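RESIDUES AND SHAPES:
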Amino acid sequence: AIKSGDHVVFSHAAGAPQEIHRALVRHKEDYSGVEIFHLICLGSGDYMAPEMEGHFRHCAAFVGANSRRAVAEDRADFIPCFFFEVPGFFRRKLWPVDVAVIHVSPPDLMGNCSFGVSCDYTKPAAEAARIVIAEMNDQMPYIGGDNFIHVSQIDYIVPCSN
């Protein structure tokens, strides 16, 4: 579902889709020029490693411990902005979203999955995306509010439990 040259948005922090991160890195040779927007990556960030250059390029609105070196070595980009501005990037098409890679709870009886702990820019990114790939995690908390995506709006589901 992710193709070379795509603009991909990952849900971030504790809601990052770690299984999909690892799969992309394992299959790096299948990709060229994929741009990944990820506000803050708390996982390994392996897709930012020097050997990933040409395959993936990280674009961050927050430079954390695992992205600092990639930004300093010009293998990643930094967009200085305020956190509250990020959802508008996607709503106003300032950052194109070909694929949103999200992390959700299993659906409730109505078919709604919760974005759980990633109730920030993830929903606007998913709404703007051409394709939505979700890690569906039975350990993701089901959190209410304006924090849902209907399972019918998800194109690909990767089950996980972590």
In short: Residues 7-37+81-160 form a domain with the Glutaconate Coenzyme A-transferase fold (CATH 3.40.1080.10).
